[in-house]
Amino acid sequence: GFMFYEIDPIWTQENLISVLDQEGADQNAIWAGFFWSAKIPHQKLYIRLKPHLLRLARKKSMERRRHTEILSGIILAGWGSDQEASERLVTNAEMRDVLINADEEFRSQTLWHLERWSSKEEKGGWGTKLAVFLNEVWPRHKKVKSPRISARLCDLAFSSAAKFSKIV
User: 0.85 cut: is pTM over it?
Assistant: First the structure.
């Protein structure tokens, strides 16, 4: 569906993206197709979809829950899109807001992605973004604390002996 954006952004806006503002079966069908591909959209499309993605992450609907793993990865990828905070597709504040207002499953999946991606040792990669995420983004609210989330944070801390002290 959204591959049409590269070919004809106006048609895609009018016939697909505009439907994301309307609750119902059409919106669910568009999201199902989008998440089926499990791909992070290119920057222009990401910017266009970002308000819809952030709103969807905050919803606690059955439809959203089916796509939690992919949605959390796409939003986290938007946050990690650039080393400079001012150039990220998803800002620290937006990411924190989503983490506070999403459900525990979304937070858990986000930490799961972060653990997997930060374990890859590439220069300027997720390993360097991990400390920023934990210090500047991860919410400290009681609302986000649970045994499951604490276990995920421990998994993240123990995922790398070299980064253990920074993570803790």
Answer: no
